[in-house]
Structures are given as structure tokens and as C-alpha cells.
Specification:
Rossmann fold, KANL3/Tex30_Abhydrolase, NSL3/Tex30, KANL3/Tex30 alpha/beta hydrolase-like domain-containing protein, AB_hydrolase_fold
Length: 204
Amino acid sequence: MTSRVVETPYGPARAELHCASESRAALLLGHGAGGGIAAPDLVAATRAAVDVGVHVALVEQPYRVAGRRAPAPAKQLDAAWLAVADELGATWFDDLPLLFGGRSSGARVACRTSSEGQAVAVLCLAFPVHPPGKPEKSRIGELDGVEVATLVVQGENDPFGRPQAAHHRDVVLLPGDHNLKADVAAVGRTVSEWLDRVLRPLEV
């Protein structure tokens, strides 16, 4: 595991790199709004990806690196994320297909930036469809706007809602709520199977 600081328009971000024995692709994973890269589902997804030959960069947004818990505005999160993707894509992950992903707020960032960042697929862990108890404040448009293969891993009892499967989008419901801690082994299995499936056509 290697850690690298990446300069962004909103201060330094940090990327924690986990290398796979193969080099099929690279997956950038972002954290939730108030959490960090040590969240159990992110750890499970990282291990699963590495096991199927995908390098992983766990990305800490600048506000977290600076020690703040309150998240930055969406525009800043997206700009910082794209800066990290550009830097890693030109250095560590040169010539590899890039996948974007994350949990909760990080999943929203991955969706919003997937087109501009030229991601070949998007992984969403616990996508927050709406704030708890406020279905009228839906963010489903961010998910619907993704034009590449997408996997959403969601807790069956997630108070942030449950998205529906759609064209290019698989939704897998697992026991538990928004933190996806109830069955992290299932998170890993789901991620590894999906990664293997979406990457295979790119390797022909």
C-alpha cells in the first residue's frame, strides 16, 4: 500500500493505492460525507477488486485531509475528484481503464463526474437516493445520468432509499442499512463478480 498527496483546486487530496498482481483496470473509490476510507464496505470492495486484478485508489477529499468533517460543496468535491483522477490516470494508472466509485456521497461524486472523467464503469455503495424521510428531495437524476455500466450495492433497510435497476444499471440488495456492515463478505463477492463481468469485454 502506497499513499500519495495530490494537489487539487481546493487543497491537497490523498490517494491510498492498493496494487493488484494483474493490471486489468484501476478503480478510484471515494468516501462518504462524514466518514473516511476505512469504512467496512470500502475495505471489502478494495480487497475484492485487488483479488480480480484491479488496482484501487482510495481517495480522501481535501476537506477530510484538512481535518474537517463537514463536506465541501458538490462543485468542489467534483473538481477535486477529477483532479485526482487526471493525476493518477497520467501516472500510476497510465493506459488502464478507469472505473469510478464510492460510498454514499462518494458514489454521488463518482456518478456526477463519470462522463467528464471518462470512467468505463461506476460502482455505487449505498447510493443516497434521498435524505432520510424526504423522498421528495430525490438525487436519482445523478444516478440516471450515468451512461456506462453501473453497480449499486444497497442495504435492504437503507433509510436513504433504494434505487431501481435500469438500463446499464444493476442493483443488488443486501441485508442491513446505509452502512452495509451487516454482510461485508457479500459486498466483496458482489463487487468482484461485477468487476470481472464488466471488464471482460474490454479485454477482447
